[in-house]
Batch of 2 targets.
Target 1
Amino acid sequence: MRVSGAIVAQVLDLIGSEIRAGMTTLELDEMAEAYIRDQGAVPSFLNYAPKGDPDVTPYPATLCVSINEEVVHGVPSEKKIIREGDIVSVDCGAYKGGYHGDAARTYSIGEVKPEVKKLVEVTKECLERGIAHAVAGNRLHDISSAVEEHARSFGFSVIQNMVGHGIGSELHEEPPVPNYGRKNTGVKLREGMALAIEPMIAMGRSRNAISKNGAWVAVTEDGKPSAHFEHTIIVRKDRAEIMTLS
Ligand code: MF3
Ligand code: CO
């Protein structure tokens, strides 16, 4: 998991140094896929099919690139052009040696409105606070409530119908990791558990990310911007070990 996690982090570093206004989201995707394959790894999301939902087509790309009101699962396209003032959430997964790594970052393109910049900063802090609670002996929703409290203290809303997850030999494993919940509830965290913690935080009042007629992309209910950060971590005794650190 350290190996696959490092590859994911390197992809997100690469995207961070290359992303700029005028690029298409497909260009980012091609860059990411080439890098992952060069490392002898396989993109985790490409051809991913959620179990038990025959209506959804397998995911067609390496990255999810979600712009502004798009919360997650934006499908890269040559028609999607990144513009000055956008916030762009890039989610990446890589599989190598039998294990997955999964992480996301939201990039600001040029001059972004101050309140949107704040949203991005706070979402990153939500992830850090969540991770700080991912230690052996705590309970799962200690992570969730730390994320929720921080987001709400700035008046932002937590997307509730999309969650983090256990991760390992499968991209999505038990348990679901919500970004809201009550302290001191949920399963006991034990050393060695691997989790993908991924706050999705929105500026408006949106509680859900909605997708229309079979499309992958999920947007806020009110069209307000949303940010997303994710790390794959391992629960340890004193402090979680982050697999996808830059
Ligand atoms: N990080 C996201 C997740 O854990 C990305 C999944 S994209 C998918 O759900 F295509 F694989 F679904
Ligand atoms: Co994930």
Note: DSSP finds four helices and 15 strands in the chain.
Target 2
Amino acid sequence: MSSNVLVIGSEGQIGTELCLELEKRDDIVLYRADIRLLTNSERRLYRLDATDQRSIKQLIRELQIDEVYLMAALLSAKGEENPKLAWELNMNSLLHLLDLAKEGLYKKLFWPSSIAVFGPDSPKVDTPQNTTINPSTVYGISKRSGEFWCNYYFNKYGVDVRSIRYPGLISHATEPGGGTTDYSVAIIRAAIGTRNYTCYLKGNTILPMLFMPDAIKATLAIMDAPKESITIRTSYNLGGFETSPELMARSIRRFIPDFEINYSIDFRQDIADSWPQSINDENAIMDWGFESEYDLDRTVEAMIKALG
Ligand code: AKB
């Protein structure tokens, strides 16, 4: 029997590529929703504001949805520019969806968390799943709070909600918007275009990153895993590879030798400095078999091929 799947935030950086993968499956009927587009029911695409509880409820009821991926969010850099909006969008959308699952309107929820939950006093290297977690950005605060709500709804009401702490995500189908790690995509686009990039982070700023195909594989793996194997109901650490603007520039120069990088540091440096450089994701490996295929060089090569 097929299940009805709704992706909220379907036109964003993760949503776009998640939908491409979900579309390949013949055991699901995929519905998309995003605030940015006009409704097109032929493409099963609906205009939806993720903070509008009444419309979300109506849509889930009308389409008889079984599973929801809630990918709408305001990321770290944009969040610092508009903290109240970040809190409202990131928290209210999650709480609405948790409530609807509690009411039995649908069965399973995926909600993305982030390495932004970690703060300046968390260990920087091989950051463990459970450690000091004091986020310093509003985005990180909303993600950490959301993690606690997920855990609470699972323990108290049995809501089957699953979550991953994504690192920076590198992708080519849709541009990222509003994150601190966005440079990792912009640098490759600029290298292909003008062969010159001015980076807002210092060259030696190391952060964990993941190429989108690995992120989507992980997302589907956690959602496909049997309920009993999900032992963490806050959110799973997920690593990938560590990189910095300098290391990315070096990798890009294998293909574009005259690529130049300059620096003009802004407020995003403080955000990056508060985050881990590498992540311990042994729980994801153990519980639902996370495995990444792409390191830095393979990611850069695939990005240049796709965009070049
Ligand atoms: C951001 O930079 O805000 C995001 C994230 C790490 O969650 N890419």
Note: The two ends are 41 Å apart (CA to CA).
